[in-house]
Amino acid sequence: MREVKVTSEDLPGLYQSANSCSIRAQKIYFRSLKWYLLLLIVAALFPFLAESDALGALASAVLFLVTLGILIFLRVKRPDDIWYNGRAVAESVKTISWRWMMRADPYHDADTLDSVSKDFIRDLRQILSHNESLSHSLEARSGVKEPITDRMRACRELPVQDRLAVYKKYRIQDQASFYSGKAEFNQKRAAQWFWASVALHSLAILMLLYRIKNPAFVFPVEVVATAAGAALTWLQAKKHN
Questions:
Q1: Is pLDDT at 237 greater than 80 in this prediction?
Q2: In this predicted structure, what is the pLDDT of residue 241?
Q3: ω into residue 106 within 30 of 0, thus cis?
């Protein structure tokens, strides 16, 4: 039995570009969100650390100005949209690429390979046209690497049973392994952030109860409450749950 190893690097250039664009936008989004949440916590902490109320208020105002800038950046640049659209394009390209390699509908055997290849390239263009907002973010690489790679052609030329074996190993098993590992990782992280949020909420409650008994003793309840909200926001944004 002949075997052709097919990895993500063997898919069309549009996949490579959309995938890297999505990963880059995802990193920008989470990096911005992380700084936004951290600065909110620090801004809430400054009034308790500053030597004077005026200095604490000024420092907090500056930090809130920075967080406002981050919010505006996220709203204008929309890295989350680029992330989602890039992922959608990459997965769509991967799906039709495997269909083409497997000679599956709508890329059954035709009179000539050129004919079915033109249909495939047309579908690639159609995928991109349905996500025009992503076009300006794509790398030039998508136009450099050929839409149909040599490895894709080699896979398509295999006998039926060999093609099915390649599909099972490099499409089904690889994808199942990836999502299984990712699900396990996300479940652990979800539990960590959830219990961190619970601990911070509990700490804030204890501080408030102690303040009732000793009004003169000042605890940074606002800081803890902000941190608890930040932990929950981060959990929701990462979609670990």
A1: yes
A2: 47
A3: yes
pLDDT in tens, 109-161: 766 788 888 999 999 989 988 887 787 777 654 544 678 999 999 999 999 99
Identify which of 31-35, 83-87, 153-157, 202-206 has the greatest average pLDDT. 31-35
Q: Write down the domain spans for the chain.
A: 8-158, 183-241
Burial degree of 188 (CB within 10 A; 0-12, 13-18, 19+): exposed
DSSP secondary structure of 40-83: HHHHHHHHHHSSSHHHHHHHHHHHHHHHHHHHHHHHHH-HHHHH
Whole-number pLDDT of residue 74: 96
166-174, Cβ contacts within 8 angstroms, sequence gap of 24 or more: 166/3, 166/4, 166/6, 166/101, 167/98, 167/101, 167/102, 169/3, 170/5, 170/6, 170/7, 171/6, 171/98
CA distances from 5 to 51, 97, 163, 202 (A): 65, 14, 11, 53
pLDDT on residue 1: 61
- Measure the CA–CA gap between 8 and 151, rounded to whole angstroms: 11
Q: State how far the alpha carbon of 149 is from the alpha carbons of 98, 138, 155, 201, in Å.
A: 12, 19, 10, 54
